[in-house]
């Protein structure tokens, strides 16, 4: 007997994907948007009407330094509201995928058979006679012309997905890939043709995996489709509650006082530009590798403190919430710079039990949520963490002048600024707001 939930899923295609192991949390969120927009469009095709996007387990990331925490193979629901994601695209957490896969009654349980794996790599020469065009091709592995790790199926450089012990895969393809996510449709159709012997198996279940998915470009970056997917990426409610409680106790701010829009469903959000925010400034100051790799644009601690004090005076505020990866010694130095006239606030878990629940990724998200509700925000040049806060504040309804701000290398000097990418609403959203 075939379960009712499975009987209505003929020809189901599961798309697994992963991101280069060196990439951080916030870039991975951007890669998700590329894949979600692609999957939402792909399911309009008859052959892919039952396509599903499988969310890769979070590996231990480079910036997750805390010891004594279980920070491997974390599910997406630890950080995001899956019900919200699913109202945009058909997504499954990895353990949900395993559970659904077993319902098909596949042989050799509990193993999952991945029909083909595609490891994407960039073309060495991207422009042909000055023209960039979408293309892909399988690589015949030649150690003299291809980096060994690029096509090594046992390497985790393209992502840790294949290290999942329940996965078994057939063909491993090393691909040169150049183009947007839409180009993946051609690659998948070709794979389906290769894996289909005839009419008897054309509606069989298929599983494919795309590694190094950050190679894939956005189909339409920054347009209404991008923002629909971005708006659906609401954080887990438990993390939202931690941030709300901290703002209430440490910053004397309630969500109602900030004047932001936060309807129960993201689909009910409408164009807005008059959010007030709490009575505090938020500063996101990257340290760590930025001090070395972006020395010409990253301010010193003293310079950052001077700029924070200038903004506090300008907006007649006395409290700054600092989101940073600074060391405890650097935090102490910053606090001393601001101590006598201004209040310095920084989020840390209130107990070891809370730290175990939040983990490093959750702590960073709480920081982002709090910064999203600030009266004024200033971030770090070229930081993806800063850009995610920009996006969140655009959704909540803040003005561009209180959002798209960047620390300068030095107070009063020439300053490289982050690009301004305002939210784009659909025509239906605009009409409903009139």
TrEMBL record:
This is GDP-fucose protein O-fucosyltransferase 2. It catalyses: L-threonyl-[protein] + GDP-beta-L-fucose = 3-O-(alpha-L-fucosyl)-L-threonyl-[protein] + GDP + H(+); L-seryl-[protein] + GDP-beta-L-fucose = 3-O-(alpha-L-fucosyl)-L-seryl-[protein] + GDP + H(+). Belongs to the glycosyltransferase 68 family. Its main location: endoplasmic reticulum. GO terms for biological process: fucose metabolic process. The keyword Plastid does not apply. GO terms for cellular component: endoplasmic reticulum; Golgi apparatus.
